[in-house]
Amino acid sequence: MPTYRVPRRDIQFVMHEVLNIAEHYQSIPGGEDVDVDMINAIIEEGAKFAENEIAPLNESGDAEGCQWDDGVVTTPTGFKAAYDKFVEAGWPSLAHKPELGGQGLPESLGTMLNELTGTANWSWSMYPGLSHGAMNTLEAHGTEAQKQTFLLPLVEGRWTGTMCLTEPHCGTDLGLLRTKAEPQADGSYAITGTKIFISAGEHDLVDNIVHIVLARLPDAPKGTKGISLFIVPKFNVNADGSLGERNGVACGSIEEKMGIHANATCVMNFDGAKGYLIGPENKGLNCMFTFMNTARIGTAVQGLCSAEGAFQGALEYTKERLQMRALTGPAEPDKPADPIIVHPDVRRMLMTAKAFAEGGRMLAYYASMLNDVAQRGSEPEAVKEAETLLALLTPIAKAFMTETGLESANHGMQCFGGHGFIKEQGMEQLVRDARIATIYEGTTGIQALDLLGRKVLMTQGETLRAFTKQIHKFCKAEADNGAMQEFVEPLAKLNKEWGDYTMQIGMKAMQNRDEVGAASVDYLMYSGYVTMAYLFAKAANVAQQALAGDTTEADFYNAKLFTARFYFARLLPRTQTHVAAMLSGADNLQGLDAEHFAF
């Protein structure tokens, strides 16, 4: 089983040198006292927890899985003890307001922590991870009484939260949901219905679980315009905050899944359960997007975790595994064969995972910085710009990073050859765990439709221009820097083409709306490669400046420059395939009648 080691210096490079995050925090209310030393201390303490407490539970948790017995779900051995330590250390409250029991630190520090816990043990990290979305939803839309009753225990980590959307007959199309909410005399609602695929819906880590549930009021409009949002606790809460009787919600079963075995994916049955309306009537989906957007950035981080875990596991193995000789002659003639890391194709797989891990880290942390400003910024223009950029980058990050994370996991397993297919190496678990990330919180196809259809075309390209202008300014600033031309020239060309291709698709869509769906996934992947190229160009610029100075870390910065060059030479050219596909039109997809697909 690969041993996870937190890439402390890589994280510091992104936070301090590429993103200059300490300076960013000075402009965020609550972040004024956060400096480089504090950030590094948080990284170090988070690393100790991830490496020592939950990484050792990753393989055993997968093997043991969660157990269901008449509605009671038991998590794998060691999970509860680790969670108790997590709460004792104050990690759940890291990025929440002090008046709500939090430490008041910026949200992006929580994203960094999610990377550490997620790479160490994704199944475990989902339990507090879902709570984070529930907390953000309550903070944004709950009443003061609801915050005092439900939010404070969530922030403290004494309770956890879930997101209850999907039903057996509807997945993404929430307009079809049937769960009912009947008004009661005391102002509460009786919630009745069944929700499926509820991550961490039932478990033994805490005393109470707060479900955030979509349901319909009587006589609500059909479709998505008739959905409301409710708080439904596992145990009802007394006026003094103590737990009362068990509510009418129970876990009917847990799913037998391909991966993330140590996280309980539940069928939740609501039978007249007492719930409380959160936000306006029939505006539940609008409120739930607070939760979903939090979850989408969190899921993007899983793509980063998959790539980092694959790279670390494969790197360790390929340095030790002896097989064949290097094509240029023996690399280690005193041994019977050379370590397989000398072979170009093994290097290709390792470098691909490395690049997607490092690029994904920059993208996830950058998106989290934008979220800091969107949620806490004090300058209206800066808040609006952050919201616009975040609207564009959220579907890109979620879909692109999970697709490339899955690719990286497969490369990591492939580096092991046949041994990668064997459980004891731990790489096949990584592939199984990574596979779900492209599906939940909106599939790649759904994210692509959201990006191209809603975020770009429906805004007449406003969100896209906000980002391409940023890239243009960077390229213009480095136009006279000869050392940066290998990055700036292809980036500037792609940046211009991004807008041109968008216009071409938009013109086609005016005649046939299927053109949007036909182009969307390739458009999203193209967008992801260009976005990551921009971040790698910034990283390369930082590395060049460091190497031109009096650095004692020349090897580190040369490696950063090498990875950026690999990305531009080996991965960025994939954009051309996506261009050809997305501009090829809808006819090659829609031209065959469904009944003629098979004979």
Fraction of helical residues: 55-70%
Q: Which structural class fits the helix and strand makeup?
A: alpha+beta
3D shape: globular
CATH topology of the domain at 288-440: Butyryl-CoA Dehydrogenase, subunit A, domain 3
Mean pLDDT: 95
Specify the number of helices: 19
Number-wise, the strands total: 11
Distance between the termini: 46 Å
Strand residue content: 5-15%
> What about the largest sheet?
7 strands, mixed
Question: Can you say what the CATH homologous superfamily of the domain at 288-440 is?
Answer: Butyryl-CoA Dehydrogenase, subunit A, domain 3
One letter per element, helices H and strands E, the order comes to HHHHEEHHHHEEEEEEEEEHHHHHHHHHHH
Radius of gyration: 24 Å
Oligomer: single chain
Q: CATH top level of the domain at 288-440?
A: Mainly Alpha
Residue runs with pLDDT of under 50 for 5 or more positions: none
Account of the protein in words:
The chain is of the alpha+beta class and 599 residues long. Among the domains are: 288-440, Butyryl-CoA Dehydrogenase, subunit A, domain 3; 452-589. Helix content is 56%, strand content 11%. The protein is built from 19 helices and eleven strands. The strands form three sheets. Strands 3, 4, 5, 6, 7, 10 and 11 form a seven-stranded mixed sheet that branches. Strands 1-2 form a two-stranded antiparallel sheet. Strand 4 (180-183) and strand 5 (189-199) form a beta hairpin. Helix 3 runs parallel beside helix 6 and helix 10 (344-376) runs antiparallel to helix 11. The longest helix is centred in the middle third of the chain and has 37 residues, at 284-320. It is globular. The two termini are 46 Å apart.
